[in-house]
Amino acid sequence: MERQLGLFLLLLTLAHAFPAAPEPCELDDEGVRCACNFSDPQPNWSSAFLCIGAIDVEFYGGGRSLEHFLKRVDTEANPSKDITDVLESLQWERLTLGNARVPAPMLFGVLRFLGFTNLKELTLENLEVTGTALPPLLEASGPNLNTLRLSNVSWATRDAWLAELQQWLKPGLKVLHIAQAHSLNFSCEQVRVFPALATLDLSNNPELGERGLISALCRSKFPALKVLALRNAGMKTPSGVCSALAAASLQLEELDLSHNSLRDTEGAPGCDWPSKLNSLNLSYTELEQVPKGLPAKLSVLDLSYNRLYRQPRPDELPKVVHLSLTGNPFLDSEPHSEGYNSGVVVAPVRSSLAVGLSATLAVLQGAGLFA
Ligand SMILES: *[C@@H]1O[C@H](CO)[C@@H](O)[C@H](O)[C@H]1NC(C)=O
Ligand SMILES: *[C@@H]1O[C@H](CO)[C@@H](O)[C@H](O)[C@H]1NC(C)=O
Ligand SMILES: *[C@@H]1O[C@H](CO)[C@@H](O)[C@H](O)[C@H]1NC(C)=O
Ligand SMILES: *[C@@H]1O[C@H](CO)[C@@H](O)[C@H](O)[C@H]1NC(C)=O
Ligand SMILES: *[C@@H]1O[C@H](CO)[C@@H](O)[C@H](O)[C@H]1NC(C)=O
Prior knowledge:
about 375 residues, alpha/beta, 13-stranded mixed β-sheet, about 20% strand, lipoprotein, innate immunity, inflammatory response, signal, cell membrane
């Protein structure tokens, strides 16, 4: 018994002294998702071959610098036929590259290789892109992406980064997310038109603000834009955002301003909202009243989780089909107020609801309109 225990302890000690280096890459049972985390100081890079047959692929560099690889790879050379054959046969649809310091020529070299694949979505996160790269020999030789997401990517080329990155992408990009940007003050004259971009998400840039928004929305470079998301983007007033949209002459249909601390600007100069705007999200914006100067007519208006202490009067609201007021304090006090106001306040509100605000009534009855 004692001997067995001794052997067991010895095994434990050995296991502790020589821990099996974890394989950096893992493929799920369905063979769909493959993720590699090369955080080990001496990672086994060839483990990445595990991901060749996957569809969703993630590579994380463990915060390492890839600069020393630059001496070993020729980022300009054309890939050989063997390599392009492999690239063309890849099933990769979504790729994430993250947590590394990468020289620009290497990143753009990767994009050129991805130009041979059918990749649809690319995410770059927590990257520091160093140095500059020569423009591509062949325009738009990178991937034909549908969606590009960047989060916390810094660029040595500062304000010129979008124009530089854009040269590699085919022009079909439809969705662009840029979060935690280090610069959104684009050099607009260098940016070319994004002919198919329908959704621009600049959420989680708390330093942006209305002024920054004007420089980010390069005028006439986003002619197809329909949806703009500005959650937690340092926006101050709906009218300020309206002016920025007007300056960029965007014909938006949906605008998301949720998670900004908005205030109403009394007597702000009037602003014409985009005529096709039909959905406006003002939830979680700390509003104490419905801001003045909202579009006159909307299909969707989300005013949920604000600080509305009283039921908005119909004349304060745009004509709206789907209105959400959930999570506002006036809804909590409603049942009590009915008691001690003897219905005096409540009754007129009800009758005006009947006129045009059946949607509000549905919310009051506890029905989620966006369920
Ligand atoms: C990669 O592994 C390191 C060390 O185990 C860990 O701290 C880090 O969170 C991992 N990164 C990702 C993106 O999973
Ligand atoms: C590195 O990974 C490859 C592929 O998974 C594997 O065949 C090889 O044995 C690994 N090498 C080491 C030293 O772990
Ligand atoms: C942003 O990315 C850098 C690497 O470029 C990293 O050091 C930093 O921790 C990241 N910040 C956040 C908030 O994730
Ligand atoms: C934005 O860039 C312009 C030049 O393109 C410069 O004049 C301006 O100061 C920059 N703004 C910020 C906030 O960096
Ligand atoms: C409005 O934004 C909030 C928070 O970002 C979100 O939960 C909600 O679904 C959005 N409402 C609509 C109508 O999309």
